[in-house]
Amino acid sequence: MTDTPGLAFWNRVADRYAARPVREPEAYEDTLAHVAAHLARSDRVLEIGCGTGSTALRLGGGVALWRATDASPEMIRIAGAKPAPASVRFAQAEAGEAVEGGPFDVVCAFHLLHLVPDLEATLARIHV
Known about the structure:
It is a single chain. This protein has 5 helices and 4 strands; from the N terminus they run ααβαβαββα. By secondary structure, it is an alpha/beta fold. It has a single domain (about 5-125), classed as Vaccinia Virus protein VP39 (Rossmann fold). Strands 3-2-1-4 form a 4-stranded parallel beta sheet. α1 (about 5-20) packs parallel to α4 (about 75-80). The longest helix is centred in the first third of the chain and has 13 residues, at about 5-20. The two termini are about 20 Å apart. About 30% of the residues are buried. This is Methyltransferase family protein. It comes from Cereibacter azotoformans.
């Protein structure tokens, strides 16, 4: 695993991040509804940058597999401690490494791609 810029920050703030309410709940609910409308029960979904797992926990029960990844071990620790549908799996992985365990029918990356050091290489790796 390479050194992700900002990883120390995310590890340090993970507990505070998890305790914070969603800043714009209406927008978040709209996003969830939009994503859910594009998912099929048979889909294998990869989420890159899952943070503390909120989206995976909300949508993961409606698909065959939801593999939620984050580079931060602290974020994954928090996500993994929450009750989850049987189809949800949390794993520590950087964006470019998250595709392990594929292929996937759907890839989600919410509020993340601007943080990836080499976006072009990451997108090429994801689009296998």
